[in-house]
Amino acid sequence: MKKAKEIIDLSSTLTDIWRVLSDEERVIVRKNARIVHYKKNETIYIEDEQPKELMCLLEGKVKIYKNGVGGRSQIIRMIRPVQYFGYRAFFAREPYVTAASAFEASTVCFISMNLIEDMLRQNGSLALLFIQLLSLDLGVADNRVVNLTQKHVRGRLAESLIFLKESYGLEEDGATINIYLAREDLANLSNMTTANAIRTLANFVNERIISLDGRKIKIIDEDRLLKISKIG
């Protein structure tokens, strides 16, 4: 982990928060924000750690995950620029129930949650913004619970591929998902064993739904992938 005192344009990165802050609050945020660079697979926070800061991913990709039975990891969410994370536990007055790590080289902006809370008490628009963010996260979590428990492995894997495509976009060819996942990570995202993920990917390849080149996944037939995701 490398800390940096570099100057960043917070107005162009923390856009959601920036637009509801007063000029005085913007000055305070500028003075207190810090930037940290993480290497691939470097831990950002761990389970049971006390939350102290709001985090905003500026560059890279971050995974939020939880270690389950037998040491198996479940990826809860994938964070993309410029999403906020790490604040729910602070509002709940509890330690983190998940962990976060950089999926690739990433840059994260940190702002003290005590500072954020002080501003929330004075700024109703900022408070409404965080209510909206928490509500959106809850909606995503509710859908994930249903989909990961009720869909078959084909539906879960198809949904994960669609989710990755919508979150991170496609490469210049307009078909290859712009993230390279190890089979284990894809399995953890889809709530299945690595063996099932490998087998299902192979089936999708045989059915000409996707093609594989190492960790690169190219979507050939998105309509069929969407259909499989929906029917589960």
Describe, in plain words, how this protein is organized in 3D.
The strands form three sheets. Strands 1-2-9-4-7 form a five-stranded antiparallel β-sheet. It has a four-stranded antiparallel β-sheet with strand order 3-8-5-6. Strands 10-11 form a two-stranded antiparallel ribbon. It has ten helices and eleven strands. Strand 5 and strand 6 (73-79) form a beta hairpin. It is of the alpha+beta class. Helix 5 (113-122) crosses helix 6 (124-150), helix 7 (153-168) packs across helix 10 (222-231) and helix 8 crosses helix 9. The protein has helices at residues 10-13, 15-18, 23-32, 88-92, 113-122, 124-150, 153-168, 183-190, 194-206, 222-231, and strands at 2-4, 34-38, 43-45, 53-59, 62-67, 73-79, 84-85, 99-102, 106-112, 210-213, 216-219. 46% of the residues lie in helices and 22% in strands.
H and E order: EHHHEEEEEEHEEHHHHHEEH
- Radius of gyration from the CA trace? 19 Å
Helix residue percentage: 40-55%
The strand count comes to 11
Mind describing the biggest β-sheet? 5 strands, antiparallel
Keywords:
five-stranded antiparallel beta sheet, 46% helix, alpha+beta, 232 residues, elongated, four-stranded antiparallel beta sheet, 10 helices
Question: In summary, what is this structure?
Answer:
With 232 residues, the protein is an alpha+beta fold. The protein has helices at residues 10-13, 15-18, 23-32, 88-92, 113-122, 124-150, 153-168, 183-190, 194-206, 222-231, and strands at 2-4, 34-38, 43-45, 53-59, 62-67, 73-79, 84-85, 99-102, 106-112, 210-213, 216-219. The longest helix has 27 residues, at 124-150.
